[in-house]
Amino acid sequence: MKMLHTCIRVKDLEASLKFYKEALGFVEKRRSDFPEAAFTLVYLGLPDETYELELTYNYGHEAYDLGNGYGHIAVGVDDLSASHAAHVEAGYPVTDLAGLPGTPPLFYFIQDPDGYKIEIIDLNQF
Do the Cβ atoms of 87 and 94 come closer than 8 Å? Predict the structure, then answer.
């Protein structure tokens, strides 16, 4: 078996694409439009990665209720402090740098336009 993708549903496809491309460096891998069924699927990935993030856009759907069951997506970076500073400067909603109890800062969270949380993890701490 092989992990292929994670799907999230988005209210504003263009806002979500802008966020994932600009904030996290994702690129659009492929897109499938189904106007007769009123939805579009866009698959994003990181350069040189095969695992994808599927954005599902259902035309005209109101904001989704994320409830209390959604966890988060995680993305690793080589320079946690620089990434955090860039996200703060760009005005994205981010948490402070944090660590697990008794550890130095290892991560922070950034939020996408639909409220999904993405954990940004320091790859140098593994």
Answer: yes
119 flagged as catalytic:
yes
Quick check: pTM over 0.85? yes
Give me the DSSP letters along 61-106.
PPPP--TTT---EEEEES-HHHHHHHHHHHT--BPPPB-STTS---
Taking the chain (126 residues) in runs of 10, the rounded mean pLDDT of each run is 92 97 97 97 95 96 85 94 98 97 94 96 88
Distance CA 126, CA 107 (A): 12
Conformation bin of residue 60: beta by default, left when phi > 0, alpha when psi is -120 to 50:
left
| 28, 54, 62, 119: the active-site residue | 119
